[in-house]
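It is worth pausing here to work through a concrete case rather than discussing structure prediction in the abstract. The textbook approach is simple: state the sequence, then state the predicted structure, then interpret. We follow exactly that order.
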Amino acid sequence: MRDTLGVLLAGGAGERLFPLTRDRAKPAVPFAGQYRIIDITLSNCINSDLRHVYILTQYKALSLNRHIREGWGPVVANELGEFIEILPPMQRVSKSWYQGTADAVYQNIYSIGSEEPKHILILSGDHIYKMNYGLMLQQHCASGADVTLATLPVRPDEVSPFGVVEVAKTGEVTGFEEKPKETKIRSPFNPDMVDVSMGIYLFNTDILLPELIKDAEDPDSKHDFGHDILPKLLGRFKMQAYNFVDENKQRALYWRDVGTLEAYYEANMDVAGVTPVFNLYDKSWPMRTRSYQYPPAKFVFGEIGRTGMAINSIVASGSIVSGSVIRNSVLSHDVRVNSYADVDASIIFSHVNIGRHCRIRHAIIDRDVHIPDGTVIGYDQNEDRKNYFVSPSGLTVVTRDYSKYENPVSAEFLQDHSS
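Step two, the predicted structure:
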């Protein structure tokens, strides 16, 4: 892996995750209480011993940049030439923003070339999965491939969001279909499944860089790896498929694109469950993130009807569950839930204060939101739409502009801390 450069694409606008991406980049959206989405891919990099990584950012990247700088800079050894480094758009070869995934890499071609890597691994910063990229590199080298792309088997009725990959029995890629409504292609390894692209590509550098230059000069190109680069390489260079090997070690393969509110919500609900499919507690494949200096989570009061407790939930450090009940939910850092409140099947971001007697369910509460006493969210969609964002599936998202709460500190908070 010392001859491999990871290029992590983290510049997408993330429209489908609105309003969570209104003020932050999609890879910077919190996940599972204490992580950001990008932490999952970066943890895969470190666990795979990939320690030369460029992160290409673009939209609303301030919080993402800060998270990478403070959380991931200390992980690698700079004195050994290792780095996890952010590359914002510099317009060295173009006067425009990134026009596609391939154009994002092309616009940083000088920075990439200066590292003189033998291989370039293209990654995305908004997927949840566990993968050892070193195994993919081993197959790439052993097969003599010029390009290797990671593939995932899915059912034929699930192919429409994906790029379908036609694979021969030898593992060589013979064709593509870009997000078809249906396909007759089947996996040679399982005739009931279809192989689709995971958006993870491994190139020999001497193949990729000239192709990026050609693509940049093509006025008809969308400058996208899946749409343009890979189809143009097909038949000219040896292209292999790498069957996803899941380090999550569950019966079913786990790979999630959390680019929509519903997919993001379900992935968080999974990790809060009794037996989550995505295991955060596997010490052999640790998930890393930025460290925050908060005290441990705290649960107070044990009176009848006023018991501080969390059931089937994740509660991050610095949070206080004060005489309230949390069920099937994810609480990030520094959350305060006051007495007699009930929170069910919800995701609460950092620095949120939920007042007394609140009832919240099937909702996402963005950071720095202060919910006034007695507020009810998630029980009546028509009422929620008057004040909050409600997705087509009925998921309520509360952001700072939608909250009417003026005072960030509740009366109970002052009373309980007066001593």
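Step three, interpretation. The CA atoms of residues 22 and 263 lie 18 Å apart. The first strand starts at residue 4 and ends at 10.
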